[in-house]
Amino acid sequence: MTAGRPRPHRPGRPGCSGLPAAAALSGLGIALTLLGSFLVSMDVSVVNAIQPAIGKSLHGAGTAAVSWTITAYAITFAATLVPAGRIADRAGRRQAFSAGLGSFAVGSAVCALAPDLPILLVGRVLQGAGAAAAQPASLGLLLAVTPTARRAFYATRWGAAGAVGIALGPVVGGAINVLISWRWAFLVNLPIVALALVLTPRALPETVRHPGRSLPDPPGAVLLAGAAALISLAVSQVTSWGLVDVKTVVAAALGVILGLAFVSRCRRVADPVLHLGLLRERRLALLTATTALYAAGFFGLLFSFVLFLTNVWNLSTVEAGLCITPMAATVVVLSSRVGHLPARIGFRPPLAIGAGLIASGLIVDAAIENGHSFHVVWLFVAVLIGVGLALCYLLLGAAAVANTAATDLAGVTAINQCARQLGAALGVASTVAAIGPHAHRAANFHLAWLICAGFSALAAVTATALGSERVRRPGWRAVQAGLVGSSEGARDAE
């Protein structure tokens, strides 16, 4: 073992990762790391809840334009995830966590004060960059301050904190919009982040720093962001511009060109944004496809559900949030329980069944929802989709790093999280194209749900093609410990 690296945990040692035993007992430190997962996740669903109000407030911005509040966030997260993880390696996870929260807070302030949509999108880009730094660093810090034997437990709780954030987002966003203004949905982040920034240096010890490590290929990150943005633009505007309109064709063509340039660059440079060579392994390629397809279906349905409830059923944003809550609450209830499934039946059955349930629920919705009012079938479908989301939410990330060499954990995790964000951008863009400029027609939403069901069904197919191996319980701790978006996480899991 090289000098300066943390010593491995040994039986009888209460600490871990070279940190004192007291660090493992810090309830405040654990709470702060869970906050990173909670805050970032809640911000996604909060914005989904308030998007109708944003469109009305900002000079009647259309659905396609407002959808970029979600797309810009997802693309920025995907493009900056790996560089942010490498910065955490160089400067320390605690410093990266604090810097990420700071960027997230600045972005929140910009969003809250934005006089128009372009400024709002600048704020969302800042939030996405901050989330890319804070979220993986928060998990890395959590694993650094907990004993090895308890890593699986706390990693699951970290994921559950994100599920709670998603569950509360629609209700919180809707309530804030009705009681005050949608702008306060961003402003409430500021005191929370300020308190976290004050407490973090006192509650969380810094991890080992590696100042000599260089950043991975910045031009590659720009190419990835540009390709994703242009393809999302072409897909989302296809209804307004037309399939063969010159703007659609040029945007799509440029996106594909930049995407191919990104792939070529990742193959040529010594330290790429994503180690695409890992995708030669069939299992990882299937899991990456499953993750992207699942994210496309999930983020597409989350985006469309709020619009349907407010524009077709004419519900308030609070009522819309309450209609979505059963789905999110199901994810919260089950998120701490599905972690036992890989050791019993492997990853393939729960992932295939979960994606299949999401597709089934969306097909039922598309077949029966006639645009009148809330009824019991909606509740049933929400719970059905919630079960599917719970099965996929935690296990996709864990499956990606299961049976992966410790030296590849960071690269595999980066590919998995990047696929999720790019899938989210594609799902939202596809949903926007299906809904079109007429967001009051139930039939348009039925088409959107069938598209999301198609993404989910394809995810079920690719999940079915996975191997049937099970994860041994001791190995499951290492799998959970490997869910860190930086190369430091790989060294800790060794």
Helix content: over 70%
End-to-end span in angstroms? Answer: 11 Å
Encode the helix/strand succession as letters: HHHHHHHHHHHHHHHHHHHHH
**Structural class of the helices, strands and pairings?**
mainly alpha
Largest sheet: none
Overall morphology: globular
Contiguous runs where pLDDT drops below 50 for at least 5 residues: 1-25, 473-494
Mean pLDDT figure = 82
Number of strands: 0
β content, as a range?
under 5%
Round the Cα radius of gyration to an integer and report it: 21 Å
Number of helices: 21
In short:
The protein has helices spanning 21-24, 27-57, 63-66, 68-91, 93-113, 117-144, 151-179, 184-187, 189-203, 218-236, 238-241, 246-268, 282-311, 317-335, 341-345, 348-368, 376-401, 409-435, 442-464, 473-481, 487-493.
Structure description:
This protein is an all-alpha fold and 494 residues long. Helix content is 76%, strand content 0%. It has 21 helices and no strands. The protein has helices at 21-24, 27-57, 63-66, 68-91, 93-113, 117-144, 151-179, 184-187, 189-203, 218-236, 238-241, 246-268, 282-311, 317-335, 341-345, 348-368, 376-401, 409-435, 442-464, 473-481, 487-493. The longest helix is centred in the first third of the chain and has 31 residues, at 27-57. It starts with 20 loop residues before the first helix and ends with a helix.
